[in-house]
Amino acid sequence: MKKITTSILIALFSATIFTPAHVEASWLSKTWKKVEKSWNEAGKQSSSTGTTSTSSSTIRLPQRSEYPNSYPSAQKIGYQLGGQERSIAGIYPNATYEEIRQILGNPTEEVHHEYRRDGEQRAFMRYGGITYSSIYGDIERAGVIEVTNRDAATYRGIAVGDSLEKVYEAYGRPVRIFDDNTWFYGVFIWRSDYMYGIKFINDGEKVTKIRVF
Question: Whole-structure pTM over 0.85, yes or no?
Fold first, then answer.
């Protein structure tokens, strides 16, 4: 394209040699400036397209193999997430069932004082795809919050169905990636019940379940 345009300009320049002296001498310079401007704009557009292509490249996600197989006993690993960070639909872990009802109203389903096969009592309230459940036999409080669909998102905006790339952008590198590829953010003590934070259960690409405790 540039070669063709240059040839045309040369021809036009040659033609101006035989024109009367009173013809405006700046015609060629004005035309050349217009052509240069079009080339510059085309170059910027091409450069912009290349930058966009680079920025859309896939993020390299952390892998399970990059984490140790064990940790020192009795040592806290990770960091404490604030209560708000662990809230779902305005409910914090360890809220009483009465508090949950006051905020969200009557649940879709609820069970209290049910004995499991292991002898531990069970209690939960479910609101669509959000379930608030008791743990360790404390049937007055919901120590675990589980989300199985897009009825709710975390404080940082992650919902079931979101990609692991989006989780990484919102939370950064996981504190721990478990053997089933679950991503964990929070604090824990190795081989103990001490664990506070958020788990993003996934299929290797997208979040399939969120568990907060």
Answer: no
